[in-house]
Amino acid sequence: MNVRSQISMVFHLDKCIGCHTCSVACKNIWTDRKGTEYMWFNNVETKPGTGYPTQWEDQGKYHGGWEVSGDKLRLRSTGKGRIVTNIFHNPHLPTMDDYYEPWTYKYEDLFNAPAGTDQPTAMPISKVTGKYIDIKAGPNWDDDLGGSPIYAANDPNLSGLGEEQRQQLQALERLVLFYFPRICNHCLNPACVASCPSGALYKRGEDGIVLINQKRCRAWRSCVAACPYKKTYYNWSTGKSEKCLLCYPRLETGQAPACFHSCVGRIRYLGVLLYDADRIAEIAKLPADKLVEAQREIILDPNDPNVIAEARRCGVHESVIESAQKSPVYKFVKVWKIALPPHIEYRTLPMLFYVPPLLPVLGQTDNNVYENGQDVAAIFHPFDQQRVPMKYLANLFACGDEGKIRYVLRKLMAVRAFKRAATVGDIPMATALQALSQADSSDSEAEDIYRMTALPTFAQRFVIPPMHREEAIEAFKDPQDHKREVGFGFTASPKRGL
Questions:
Q1: Domain assignment of residue 287, yes or no
Q2: pTM above 0.70, yes or no
Q3: Quick check: 404 and 193 in contact, CB under 8 A?
Q4: Cα–Cα distance between 228 and 245 in angstroms, integer?
Q5: CATH number for the domain including 300?
Q6: How far is it, in rounded angstroms, from Cα 238 to Cα 362?
């Protein structure tokens, strides 16, 4: 057992209001320089929808992530050995059309325009060329257009849905949307790290954050193609790649990342997980239908004496172990099992998890009957009748396995019924307890889930362990290791915290 620690995250999608405060906070801190105008380390998408960059989930187009070839894992797009053949042209890189051409406005025209009969306007100009452009896209161009035939119809997650379900999604009376915030997943098996010929990308040993060494980066851009989530960007001004760094300078001083700290809906949770690094390759090669449970298995119980002993042997600091024992992420993912990884079929083993959304309470009509014809006494309609097709959520979070989505939504609905019975009293408590039992839960667990999702303090949502950089570096140092050539005259350490 090779115990490592990983800063991990949970996003509760039922609480996201799509305000984009997280995106703006990140933008103002990290991507306000020339060449980073189009970069959004944090972005919020509307689902169903094509996202940013356009159709990033379509790996038939972008070839991101890993694939199993025989008994080996292989990068789908490119790698250190294959980069030479497409050094001048990588067909799987997103283009500016897939992102958008960043623009500003010629504000000086508002002040310097000559006298005339019309009010002067600030014309949009490209931040790349400085010339006038006709704006046709942006990072959240399809905001709130879930279900629309223009954007949502091209969502790759709609694969497997029948024509009738697709038409229902696009019908005005059934229009449905939810918000899907995204940052770098800081994966356990990051394709971006494996693809870099110059060894510029690495995963920090003490917290698992994936970073890019700007001095080593040589603009191969294979990391952009290899990342299936398209969270690595190329700075066209500096000739370097950049990505989300999980605000590690803030973490090292005990502060939450900017996007977490600014979140209006308080949907974000951050904590440390302990995992067995020896099992990464084994799990990443499993069939798609086994990946979700296998990733849960790789996460270790921080209260297990054997795990604690192995963690100490591997150099994990005592304070990190204590933080893992208090981690809200561990509860969501491993204990309650209501948080799922996005598109784990890409086999990068993402360490950002999502709690799938439920629908609001049904609206009541004048005839004491809900809009779908259900009796008012029911209060909540069956979760599997929600407007978001179960297959859609399964494609997004569970490799198409609807059973895993049903498990999560059944438990969330049972918790909602239990609290309604306890506070309002219009649902019999016996009925609520029966629902909890059928959802593999209990009244005590339901109370814990409710308090963590509805009433958590800042300290409960963000359990940030001290970084202990000096000890982490020593823990992963091997005196027998020497720098090795990685090709094209560049060198890299063979152990970079992985």
A1: yes
A2: yes
A3: no
A4: 17
A5: 3.30.70
A6: 52
